[in-house]
Structures are given as C-alpha cells and as structure tokens.
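Exercise: predict the fold of this chain.
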Amino acid sequence: MSLTSNLFLLFVAAAVILYYLVPKKGQWIVLLVCSYVYYAAGNARHLFYILFSTAVVYCFGRLIDRLQKQEASQKKIRAAVIAGLVLNLGMLGVVKYSSWFVESVNALFHAELSGLQLLFPLGISFYTFQSSGYLLDVYWKKAQAEKNPFKFALFVSFFPQLLQGPIGNFNRLAPQLAGEHPLEWKNIANGLERMLWGFAKKIIIADWAGVFADAVWGEPDRFSGIVLFGLLFYGIQLYADFSGAMDVVIGIANLFGIRLDENFRRPYLATSMADFWKRWHITLGEWMMNYVFYPISLSGWMMKFSRFTKKKFGRKTGRVIPIALADLLVFFLVGIWHGASGKYVVYGLLNGGIIAFSELMGGPYKAWKKALHINDKARWYHIFMIVRTFIIVNLRWFYDRSDTLAEGNYLVKQAFTHFDLSQLFAVSAGSQGTAFVPWALLIIAVGCAAMVAHGVLAEHGISVRDRLNALPLPVTVAVYVLLFVLIGLFGSTAAPRGFIYAQF
C-alpha cells in the first residue's frame, strides 16, 4: 500500500481507532498486528525476511546478554556479536548484492555465471540496519536485551517507518511502542497537520518536479539541452519526496502518541558537505557515525595508523588523515547501502572524498581566509557557503538518479556541452501536455519559495506550525483546510508516483 493511496489512509484510520478502543495494555499488540498485516499486504512472501532478521537478532541479543551476565570471555561474546551481524547483514548482502556481484564477475572474467533469483523485500535496508544497531547496543551495554520476542518484533516492524525509516534507536523507540498512550486530541491534530504538510510536499512539489527530471533521464538525447535543469528538478523532487514521506511517517506515529526521530533539518541550507550530512537522512548518518565511524576510528589498527601518520606527516596532518580515511570508508558503505551498482559506489566515494578533502584542507582554508581577511560570520560569506554547498550537493545527483555509471557520465558531459532552454517547454507536463509547462513551473517555483521561507524561519528559531497553532482555532483550521484544497487543485496530474525511498 502506497502512503499516498486512499486504501493506506483507511488502513491508518482503522488502526488508530482500534488502538484507542482496546485496553491500553494491549495497544502494542494492535501495532504489531497492523504492522505485519501492512507488510504482508505488499507481498506475503517478504515476511520470511523480516521474520528471519527479527528472530536472529532477538536470539543473539538474548545470548549476548546471558554471556555478559555469566562473565564469559570477551572472545566468546564477540563471536556471538559477529555471528548475529553476519547472519542479519549477510541476508541483506545476499538479497541486495548477489546479482550485482555475479554480473561484475561475468563482466570481468567473461564468464556466464547465473545469479540467484531472489525477491527484493521492501524496506530491508532499513529494518536490518535498525535491528543490527540494537544488537551492537546490547553488546556495548547501551541497551538492555528485550525479553519479549513480540515486543522486539514490533520494534523491527513498526509499520509507519518500516519501508523508508527513519532508522530507530532501541532506547528511544521501543519504550514508546510498548507504552500505554491515552487518546489526546493534541497528538491527533499534530499528526494530521504533519501528514498534510508531507502530502503537500510530495504531491504538489515533488511530483511536478519529477515530471521534468523524468523527461531528461527518460530521453537524454532529446532533452540534452536542459540536463542541468533536469538535475535541479531532481534535487527538488528528491528532497520534497523524501522529507515529505518523513512528515507523513512521523505524523502517523504521532496519531498513536509516538515520537519518531527527525530525519531532515533543512539540508539545502547547509554550509558544507559535512553539515549537509548532519541535516540529510539524519538517522542514517547517526547510524553510520555510531556503528561504523567511531568503531573504526577507535579500533586498534586505526590507532596504530594514526600514530604512524602523526610521526610521518606531523601532529596536525597526521591526526586528520585517519579521520579522512574513516570518512571514505563510511561513505563507501553509504553508497552501496543505496543500491547494488557502480554508480552508487561513485556516489558514496564522491561524498566521502569531498568531506575527506575538506578535513585535510582545514589548515590551508583557515590560512587563506586569514590572508584574505574573510570573516566567517559575515552574512555574505554564509550565503556563499550555502550556495557553494548547494551546487556541490546537486552535482552528485547525476549518479544517484542515473540507472548506470555510464549514463551518469554521459549526462555530466551533456550538462556542460549543450544548452537549449526551449526544450524545457517540450516536456509533457501531466494530463494537459506541453501547454501546462509554464503553470507547472510556476507551481514548483512557488512551492520551493515556500519551503525556503519555512527553512530560513526555522533556522532562526521560528516555527511556522507553532505560529499557526497559536492563532484562533477557526483560523488554524481554515489554513489547513486551504492547504488540503491546494493539494487537490495544484497536485501533479501526471501518473501517480510512489515515494522514492519506499524501494529500499
């Protein structure tokens, strides 16, 4: 069920009604049943994978907890952790990357190996990471091992976040899922408001921007003169789509009195690539930081490497090199997490490479700014940093949107060798065709202006939603009714689109 479908909204409404009708002690059971019904509705055969992940991590979590209480050797405990992670993440690896591996071997050695014909379960990248994080937290004694297998199953499968996150932390999420929540109209109102904003982003902005991005990537030769516009539209589409999905997901959770982690914080107002990744897909960034970056940085071999680089290159440079290397490793994983393809490896390494280069150039940057008398806090310089980062961020989307690495390279070439603005008006904009292009562009422009204004205000600590809710109730209701009407009036008339990250 797509998050934008009427059937899904009816499912959510039924789940909320049932949730508050049952005794509070049974509310978590309603969430568990609804979560599995929702997942099975997509494809019942996918249930095997989520059940496998849940069972493996639950059992190994209990085993690790018992070994720690018995004061078993660290070697035995570590072996249990590795086994649990290998089984859980190994399932993700086999399902998601086995075909890519076989294709790569065939291409490299001119072989004719046949790949495994496996289903690709929806949301597998999210729930395997979430459950693996829990297992490591139990090992590091940051979380208590869950004794109830059904409550743990709910943590892994909570239906609003199941297909596209945010990636939950056990200590923050599990107590809420298992807790008792009285019916509070404030939660219902906040949830519906957040959902409405999310649908507006998705249906009005993302789907219209997607019309133009799809035209360029669908017929790159025909629209070779507007590749840069296509790139810009894809950047708009991806942000409005993914952050809109998070608004919907977080809003649905609010209906049950549950607070999910925020996954976006105005990423296009970032002043550097490192800052961008603290604002974009925040829970993935935190997962990588907590479970990959810090363990690598504090590992024995990295400590030895750090001592070597400090001795070889001096204390300042030597301290930065291991951090830069850890950044490259993290973003290599971020790249392949997004998909099994060479383009995603390039995408990840581009991110890591830019951040690593910035780390290494920290000293020279500071010296250049001092020599040029540049004030870091000057408004013009802050705007310059935002614009510069926005350009770098969008240039990376070539490899995120393209189907192959070769296609990404081809479009990069076209973007900087061809320009023909008239091609923009040859795009078929929804059900009304090319005649609607000016209006579609106006809708996108107004929508983006609204998002930018909202973001700038939020950067200064001003919440538009809080200001709206502080108005007299009839005025607040009228604003949201108007927003609902605007979605119907200005929503994309092109073919319905699912949320982009629902395929992960």
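Check your answer against the key: The chain has three domains: 6-183, 193-264+416-503, 284-374.
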